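Service request form, structural biology core

Requester: graduate student, group of Dr. S.
Request type: structure prediction, single chain
Budget code: on file
Notes: please return the result as structure tokens.

Sequence provided:
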Amino acid sequence: MTKRNSIGFIYFAVVVATLLLRIASSLDVYSALGVDNSDAFYSCMVQIMIFGVMPVSLYLLTVGRREGVKTVISDFAVKKISAKTAARVLVLGVCMIVVSTGVSFVWQNFLSLIGYVRTSSPTDYSSIGVLFRELVLVAVLPAVFEELTHRGLLFAGYRECGWKFVLISALLFSLMHQNIVQTGYTFFGGAVMALTMYYTGSVFPGIFMHFLNNAVSVISGYVGQNGGFLSFITVIENWIYGSPAGLAVGFIAVAVCAALLVLMFYLLRKDAVKNGIIGARPFEPAVEAKPLRTDIPFILTVLLGVGATLFSLAWGLMR
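Core staff response, request fulfilled:
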């Protein structure tokens, strides 16, 4: 079995395990087993075991048997970046949050128009302890372990595809969530983080941007319920979503941040070409071992993800 096939089946196993744990959570299996906080238990199991221990262990057993952990570090692109690149990544992270918020707004309104009914159970931020718990469960763990799998593992398997890795990573990251509500903005965010990795050759920028995005969401939820010195965030959000002038300003902010994203990627690309990370010609064709249409693990993973996502759509339409 080729390296790409091995990694493809590893990722497929990760997605299957994620789906099984999600089904168990929806059936309230964890509570029946006596777990005090089933949501926290589910998050830890998915992030640490499924997106962390499982792919790394299977990779070591199949691909990296001889060189061990060094292979994971090298193939998963675990390497430092320069201070200049880090500054650009910070700008990218902020702009990604703004633009993905706009994408999410449009996508959720589209779903509402076609009759999709969303149900959610917002976190009760009853104490500062809950805030720190959610920062760990929602921001820290996903940033590390989801990036380790969706950028690191997939980069190890599909870097031979060149720039197509960006689309592959974004698509699989989006489908992994198996939730139609998250499909739009996770594809966009996945593409931004994958393209950043493609240009920098490092998994760390994606980890930082992923953490920043999720941490902002958690803090926004806490402030919305408890106020505090960051309560201006809630005021701004209510104004943007609740008035024509606010929507206009929001649209302008999204457009400006989209332009900044293009600029930052242009600068990252210049450095990537200069440092020999990528070729000088944009979208330069790569030497692929086989086309994606013949990649069985990839096709199986996409079909499973599409099936689960469409099920979530149908479930919302039937409410």
